[in-house]
Amino acid sequence: MARNSGRRARHDYLNDPTAAVYGGAGLLPGDGGGSVTGYLLNRAKPHLPPWLAVGATGLAGALGNWRWGDSSAAGVGLTLASVALTGATWWAGKSTSQQRRLHSAITVAAGSAWLTAACLAGPAAGPLDDLFLMGGPVVALSWNVRMVLRRNDDPSGESADKGLMEKIGLARAQLGNPKVEPNRVTAPVALAAGEQTNDDMAKALGNIASALDLPTSAVRYHPDPDSNRRGDLVIVPEDMLADVVEWEGPSNLGGSIAEPLVIGRYDDGAPLLLWLPGDPEQGRNSTHVLTAGMSGSGKGDAALNLLTEVLSRRDVIVWFSDPKAFQDFAPLREGLDWGVEGGTGTEVMVAAVQQAIPARTRWLGEHGYRQWVPAAAQQQTSPEHSCRPDGRPCGCAGMPFLVTWFEEAANTLRNLGDDAFTGIAQEARSAGISLIVSLQRPSYDQMSTSTRASLPSVIALGCDPRDEGFCLPDEVLAAGAHPGAWGNRRPGYCYVVSPGIPEDRYPSPGRTRRFTHRAVPVMELLATWAQRNGATADPVTAGAASAVAGTAYTGRTPTSTAAAAGAGSVPQLHVVHGEGDDMQQHSVHVDPEDTGIDPEADLPEVEQGDDAPIFGQETGRKPSPEEARELFARALAEFEENGQMIVGPKDFMDWCDRHHLSRPWVSARLKEAALDGRLEATNTTGRWRIVPALTAA
User: Membrane-spanning regions, if any (predicted)?
Assistant: First the structure.
């Protein structure tokens, strides 16, 4: 009941702000029992105080004359009291408008002067009674007129909300006519010139929320970029995010990735939108996205909202890394162009993205695109976008937009270094690539400042109050955004800062939709749709990825094709015929690697390293240089065939045991292979990336 009363009071204020200043909802028409008398009494109540003050002054003059009529000392005291009261009124009115200050001081001076004369000479002596009968009503009516004018937004700045501004210490601020929308009120603010700034208004937002009995997030201030004392005060009285909305499916199945992605709703009911590619006609740049929030704040649901929207578009492919083994994203995995589970796979994916950037940028430039647009994803049949020197249509396959997503990126940053994404973040946007990074705390000890500065968009969910500065720009926090107020108590609540979103929306809280077990079948259907109808990697992007990842990158290759490719690697059985009647089929019992060994041949001579192990000394046979190169090339081919494209000495431990080779020998071969171009150094010391055999050749 109390909550409903509070909501009604806030509704009354937003529709008639004078109700809060002049006594609340009880003074509004119709609250006096429905009678004309009651209505008139309610309307007259706010105007009675000045008249009561005039009557009290006359009564005080009569009583004072009865008490001090013959006392000269009382005359001195009353005169000094009159001067002191007038001075105190002038001093107290310093924070108010000049008109109010002067009006108050004149009223107090006139009233105290008449009271002093009446106490000493009598209220009816000389002209005192006439002054009281004429001057008293004039003073009272002047305050009644002032009160009536306060109901309108007059040029002097005495707006209907002046009482509210006085309460928060900004009495000289002027509020313009508010714009009332469903669950949203916007009022222009003009602060006192030379005395108040937009920073003062931003600091007072908490007091405004307290005066209106609203949460802090319901009151925002949007400064005017062209003025340091003007802006818009926005009040959202009802939290429309309190009710959970479940995800039921994508908003635009089969649309373009250039169209807005709907990931939730704002607190006033408007859709929460996000754009990834740029739009040269609207002047919007392509963007990368940082998703940040503490454990339990709803990062998983926020990611699912965004990923399902991306996968539902026809001209985009997704490369996805999740060190948590796709715990939240398993139903969508079949719709990805490339998915890895962290570790070595993520290292390869980062290198593949770095390789794809110049390849895609070169293709876009050759076809006349300054940035990726939906037309780039179609077959190039226009002469304006031809790579042929003669200008005729080239017919090249289109290039879909590429989303590279690194979930739980703190794990990747620990393994690859805090600047692992710096180059990608700085260069990928011009290549039609969007980088999405998700982690709990984007602090400077986890992510380099260069990387953070290159992520223009952020989805900031609940966090520790001390981490707000890591998630949102200072100007958005100053405008009233406070993700630290939620923590993990309101999963899905977020602020979104991104190109294409009006800046006055940045401090407006939103909420993503919730994914439950009922969403799993729909996500699986979406993954199937993406697999059948979604874009596939273009030859340029696929070639760049294969040049780095080798067989670790397959794209959306049909299972039958993969099976056919692997059929050729099955070893064939060889029948060995003996002499005479003792024919035996040795191939069934012989290891394929030993089929070429003559069982009758003598064993080779003892070579260096074939002796028994000696304590404290590494052992193992040291092959000849030719054999060493052949063995190591075979080992790299095995790793490449298995899709493990990042290797180091520890990865060769089992291999060394099988071939009786030592680790120092492997370390030397790694360096030789790097010099030969078969390996490339990574950001991690002691780790090497295998260059696919065809690329190396």
Answer: 72-93, 105-125
Torsion of CA 104, 107, 109, 111, to 10 degrees: -140
- The rounded distance, in Å, linking the Cα atoms of 174 and 96 is 11
- Rounded to the nearest 10°, the torsion over CA 279, 281, 283, 287 is 0
pLDDT tens by residue, 552-566: 888 865 433 333 333
> Is 417 known to sit in a ligand binding site?
no
Whose tokens are 């070429």? That residue is 596
| Tokens linked to 369 | 């695109």
Q: Is 297 annotated as a binding residue?
A: yes
- Torsion-angle region of 417 (φ positive above 0: left; ψ -120 to 50: alpha; else: beta): left
The answer to whether 134 is annotated as binding is no
> Domain boundaries in the chain?
22-149, 162-235, 261-547, 619-697
317 strand-pairing partners: 402
- Using left for φ > 0, alpha for ψ between -120 and 50, and beta otherwise, residue 474 falls in alpha
Residue 298 assigned as binding residue: yes
- pLDDT tens-digit profile of 372-421? 999 999 999 999 999 999 989 999 999 999 999 999 888 888 878 878 89
Query: Any known ligand binding at 447?
Result: no
Is residue 423 within 8 Å of 393, Cβ to Cβ?
no
Which fold does the domain 261-547 belong to in CATH?
A: Rossmann fold (3.40.50)
Per the annotation, does 469 bind a ligand?
A: no
Q: Answer yes or no: CATH 1.10.3470 is held by domain 619-697.
A: no
Residue 25 burial by Cβ neighbours in a 10 Å radius (0-12, 13-18, 19+): middle
Q: Are 420 and 683 in contact (CB under 8 A)?
A: yes
- Do 107 and 53 form a contact (C-beta atoms < 8 A)? no
293 is in an annotated binding site: yes
- Which amino acid, 32? G
Q: Say if residues 11 and 19 touch (Cβ distance below 8 Å).
A: no
Question: Would you say the C-alpha torsion 320, 326, 332, 337 has a positive or negative sign?
Answer: positive
For the chain, how many residues are written?
697
Rounded CA separation 65/126 (Å): 14
- What is 162-235's CATH number? 3.30.70
How many CB atoms are closer than 10 A to CB 488?
A: 16
- The model's pTM: 0.64
Cβ contacts of 496 within 8 Å, gap of 6 or more: 263, 272, 274, 457, 458, 459, 460, 505, 506, 510
190, 173 Cβ separation under 8 angstroms:
yes
> Is 609 known as a binding-site position?
no
